[in-house]
Structure formats: structure tokens, C-alpha cells
Specification:
Length: 347
């Protein structure tokens, strides 16, 4: 069978968990462990924009940090172009860092106030010893133009305090793009920006894919943003993967009660009184046994008391190409559940 670049996974996440160990101190007994990610598996294909969607604390940034190797998995493995990411060191880590970049949530914190736009954007070129001074300057100007900071000479020697939030995020994108990476993780790149500026940033990310073929993992809590920019999305809840599939299908016709609850939570324009389409979220949390059963069971209004509190549903393919972890949709119980999944923070 002929394979195209589009159906080659560039990133493979296999059974990845991340537990932050609760730290005690002299005055306090050890804190609780936090399961930030619980046995996540997914593939991202070359050239796609893949969305990771979930509410605050669901483990999105943790997933991004693991992929760029800023942190190590507790268990499970991550492969980028068939090479294992965890444990990279020395020269292979440096080569990896050239290919995979991350854009952070807050452009006010991610840029060094002491450094000019030129210093910030040219630094990765210096670290990787690419080009001489004039070649680097030409490359920085080209990339500033590409992210809409034009004419570039007006921006080269500005410092962050003389840039708007949107301009700062453009600088952060330019810095991530200057090494021609193959894979970029954009972690809520517009959560600090106005809607109109956000739309401009989304268009830059879309152009990065169209013109340069850059594969992206786009992290967001916003279904509207995910729908605008992503080809496929994964919905995570307290570190667990609930539903994965084409963005349009998942958002238009969600199958997991949690995804349905997310759709219900989106404010509907022109409706004074909130009409709930699905009504899958319980108003009051119910008691549930510890460490077993579906993670969503305590707040699920459509749960089956015979099975949902007892077993954890495995991620199961449906007939339309998506995957869902819900007994109501025919999931089988997950084979082994060696991790508790109750200690992530509250709903
Ligand atoms: N370094 C850390 N030490 C301990 N716990 C952590 C650490 N980093 C994250 N966590 C916890 O892991 C869980 C997942 O956090 P994460 O930042 O990945 O969520 P998120 O989905 O990115 O949230 P947000 O939308 O608020 O950015 C949270 O409960 C968080 O408190
Ligand atoms: Mg985050």
C-alpha cells in the first residue's frame, strides 16, 4: 500500500502516565500524589493540527511538556519520528530541540524583558550555530515578516514592554519558527489575548501548516478555537482521554457525556436562559468508590450504576473513525488499571 506523509504518525504517545509526587516538608506530612496524565495513547500525523482540549488542570500542559522533553514520563513511552523522546541526552537532545518547539500560554512571562526582539528570535540560531551574523539577521527579518511584524526593522530592537500582547505572542511564534521545526506545540497561545487578536494568531498557525507543513499540537480549553483550527481533537478529563476524532464530528456530534457537557457549557449567543442540549452533568457530585470505575462517573448524569462505578471504560473505536471511552457507547472495560485516577483536582 502506498503511504503518504499525511498518514505517517510523526508523534506516538503510548500508555503515558505522569504522576507528580506530593511533597511533604518539616511541618507537613507528605502531600497527595497528583495523577496529571493517566495512560494516554494517541498518534499525531505529519502535517495535521491536533487539538488537546480539556478544562483547567486536565493535564494539557503536562502532555506538552512531556512531548518536548521538558519533563519525563512516570511510565509509558513517547516517540517522535520513531525515535524515543524520553531519555534523550547530549547531541541527540540538541538535535531533537531543533525539530520540536513549544509556544507558551503567557507571552508576558515567556519573553525576557531585558532582551530585544532580535536577541530573542536570533538566540536559537546562535545556540545551534546556524549562519553568520548577517545571515542570522536576514533570517530573523524574514521570520518577523512571516508572523506579521512588518516592516521588521521597526521591531528588531524593541523590547517587550513596547509590544502589545498580540505582538509579543508573534515574537514567541517567530522564535519557535526560526529553526524551521517540524513539530510545534502551541499551549493556549491566545488565552491572554482579545478575540480579534486571537483570530490573527490562529491564522498565523494555519499559515505555518499550509506554507511550511509544520505539524502542530494545539492546546486549548476552547471548543470554538479547536473547531476553527484543528483537524482532529482529543478531549481529556482529569488526565484521562475521553474522546478522540475529527474536530468537526466530535464537536458537532459529541458521543462522550463529558464532551457533551463541554458543549452544554459553551454560552449560546442570544439565549438568556441556558438551554442544555445534552444535560449529562450532574448538579451535585455523587459518592463513588476509590480508584476504580469511570473517572467521569461521580458527575455523569447518564451513568449506568451497574458498571460505571466498577470498571474503567477503555478507549474504543466507533464506526465513524472516532474513539470513545464510555460504556454507554459500547466500550469494553480497560484491561488493566494499575493507576488510580481519582487524585486530580476537583470538577
Ligand atoms: N510541577 C507540578 N507539581 C505538582 N503538580 C503539578 C505540577 N504541574 C502540574 N501539576 C498538576 O497536574 C495537573 C495537570 O496540570 P496541567 O498544568 O497539565 O493542566 P492544564 O490542563 O494545562 O491546565 P490549565 O488549563 O489550567 O493550564 C493539575 O492538577 C496540576 O495542579
Ligand atoms: Mg496549561
Amino acid at each position: 500500500m502506498k503511504t503518504t506523509d499525511e498518514n505517517k504518525p510523526i508523534l506516538q504517545i503510548r500508555n503515558v502516565s505522569k504522576i507528580y509526587r506530593g511533597k511533604g516538608n518539616l511541618f507537613r506530612s507528605p502531600g497527595k500524589d497528583v495523577v496529571a496524565l493517566n495512560r494516554i495513547s494517541l498518534d499525531i500525523f505529519k502535517g495535521e493540527i491536533f487539538g488537546l482540549v480539556g478544562e483547567s488542570g486536565s493535564g494539557k500542559t503536562t502532555a506538552g511538556r512531556l512531548v518536548v522533553s521538558l519533563e519525563e514520563t512516570t511510565s509509558g513511552r513517547i516517540f517522535m519520528e520513531n525515535r524515543e523522546v524520553t531519555g534523550l541526552k547530549g547531541r541527540s537532545l540538541k538535535a531533537f530541540r531543533r525539530k520540536v518547539q513549544m509556544i507558551f500560554q503567557d507571552p508576558y512571562q515567556s519573553l525576557n524583558p531585558q532582551r530585544s526582539v532580535y536577541d530573542t528570535v536570533s538566540e536559537p540560531l546562535k545556540i545551534h550555530r546556524m549562519g553568520n551574523a548577517s545571515e542570522r539577521k536576514a533570517k530573523v527579518k524574514e521570520i518577523l515578516k512571516a508572523v506579521g511584524l512588518s516592516p521588521p526593522d521597526d521591531f528588531l530592537f524593541r523590547y517587550p514592554h513596547r509590544l502589545s500582547g498580540g505582538q509579543r505572542q508573534r515574537v514567541a511564534i517567530a522564535r519557535a519558527m526560526v529553526l524551521n521545526p517540524e513539530f510545534v506545540i502551541a499551549d493556549e497561545p491566545t488565552s491572554m489575548l482579545d478575540a480579534s487578536i486571537s483570530a490573527q494568531i490562529f491564522n498565523i498557525l494555519l499559515a505555518m501548516r499550509k506554507d511550511l507543513g509544520v505539524t502542530q499540537m494545539f492546546i486549548t480549553h476552547s471548543l470554538a478555537a479547536a473547531r476553527y483550527i484543528c483537524d482532529r481533537i482529543a478531549v481529556i478529563y482529569r488526565g484521562n482521554l475521553m474522546e478522540l476524532g475529527p474536530a468537526e464530528a466530535v464537536i458537532q456530534n459529541p458521543r462522550h457525556p463529558y464532551t457533551q457537557a463541554l458543549i452544554d457549557a459553551v454560552p449560546k449567543f442570544g439565549h438568556a436562559k441556558e438551554a442544555k442540549l445534552y444535560g449529562t452533568l450532574l448538579a451535585k457530585r455523587r459518592e463513588a468508590g476509590k480508584d476504580k470505575g469511570c473517572i467521569f462517573y461521580p458527575v455523569c448524569a447518564v451513568a449506568d450504576d451497574a458498571i460505571c462505578p466498577r470498571k474503567k471504560p477503555g478507549l474504543t473505536p466507533l464506526d465513524d473513525g472516532r474513539m470513545v471511552a464510555c460504556f454507554r457507547e459500547g466500550s469494553d472495560p480497560e484491561q488493566t488499571s494499575f493507576l488510580p485516577h481519582v487524585s486530580n483536582k476537583g470538577v
